[in-house]
Amino acid sequence: MQNKLIIAIFISLFSFAYTASGQKLIDSPYSRFNLGTLQPEGAFRSIGMGSVGTALRDNSSVYITNPASYSSFDTLSFIFDFGIDYGRNFISSGDTKFSSDDINFHHLIIGFPLSKHWGLAAGVIPVSSGYYKITQTVTSTDPTYDPNIGEYTTNHEGSGGISKIFVGSGIQIGKHFSVGANLSILSGLIQRNNSFVFSDSYNVFNNISTEKLQLVGMSADYGVQYATTLKNKYFLNIGASLSSGNNYSSKYSQLSLKYTAYGVNDTVTYAADNSTKTFIPSTLRLGVSFGKKNKFTTGVDYVTTKWSKSKIPGSTGYAADTREFRFGAELIPDKYSNFSYLDRIEYRIGGHIGDNYLIINGEQLREYGASIGFGLPLRTLQGNPFSKVNVYVDYSRKTGSLANDLHNEGYITVGFSLNLYDFWFLKRKFE
Fold it and tell me: What is the DSSP letter of 319?
């Protein structure tokens, strides 16, 4: 019965998940450039540990950043993971402060074995969000008011985002090595609108400009892991994965016009290229993890992307290479305790520090953050100890100097995911 419920949930939520991904309405002026604001990688167990995952492998979780980990799924098992998150962004630039918030879908992932030491995973995850809304009104009492120009309002708005559907497989080769690959379809639409509207709209031309970037294409991720068991149930894993760079089929258009309150248009321009390419470069991940089975796990990842090699229509010159360190740990006091629920909880902590891929006025943004997380066990009727609710809280910060007309952003995210684990094709003795 539980298996059928999982399938029903998956089918009913898949359409919603695909259309909702990458549409988070968090106001960030930095989303005006490149592909928008990049979203965290992985499911919430990983994000609660600072988004590490290259060298992690577990029979009840799907670590999508390294498909070699899929070989760890238990025979006859099924994993379902669906998550939503709430975010609040705090923007500061000198004495100016602003905040916005939103709650939205984050991911839908499934995983199951094809045979012993051979697993498959699939899902939909967000890649970027292009939402922002910036409005400024200059009146006659404003210090920057110019009587030759008059009162006016400027509006800058962005919408849309990029999402990814993936399917992948991982298989164990020999006693210690596993390899895997993901095949992904990346797609989305980002639209940006700008307007300059004068109060004296009868005698002055107002200005509107719009640009749209739509892309679609396929890419592949490759991964390898080395896993060994030490004495007293301790383990050591080493992992590496590579997301291949790819040219995505794209459509890019720009429209600009001037108009008056009488509906008179002047110098209307329109340019469109329906056969251009968006190049997203490869990402290399290296990781190591150490721990004791069902007791504690630690991990460190190094992630780098050659964003300077990217080609994003409408955003030339705004991307720089990134290097990032991610680190995290998980502690389980007593996974199978019959007396204390607190002892069965999975306690997580993590952090990350590195570069943001955005460069403005010659300065590259820096980004760092810290997270905590919890795995709250769900006791099923069959006594399954692996199903859980994953919760995490993350605070990340983007920094840029005021001298270069940049601002700082502090971003708090709270995520909740339902992680269900069940066995297929087992005939129960009692119903």
Answer: B
Distance CA 382, CA 400 (A): 53
d(CA 79, CA 60) in angstroms, rounded, equals 7
pLDDT band at 18 (very low <50, low <70, confident <90, very high): very low
Q: How far is CA 5 from CA 80, 186, 259, 425, in A?
A: 11, 29, 56, 14
Q: How many CB atoms lie within 10 A of CB 298?
A: 16
Cα(117)–Cα(50) distance, integer angstroms: 27
Strand-pairing partners, residue 376, are 389
Secondary structure (DSSP) of 65-127: T-GGGGGGPPTTEEEEEEEEEEEEEEEEETTEEEEEEEEEEEEEEEEEEEETTEEEEEEEEEE
The SS3 of residue 153 is: strand
CATH superfamily of 2-423: Outer membrane protein transport protein (OMPP1/FadL/TodX) (2.40.160.60)
8 Å CB contact between 215 and 162: yes
Q: What six digits make up the tokens of 71?
A: 């070989």
What's the whole-model pTM score?
Answer: 0.88
- Dihedral pair phi/psi, residue 214, rounded to 5°: -120, 130
Number of DSSP helices (H) and strands (E) in the chain, helices first: 3, 18
Q: What is the pLDDT of residues 161-188, one digit of tens each?
A: 999 999 999 999 999 999 999 999 999 9
φ, ψ of residue 44 in degrees (nearest 5): -75, -25
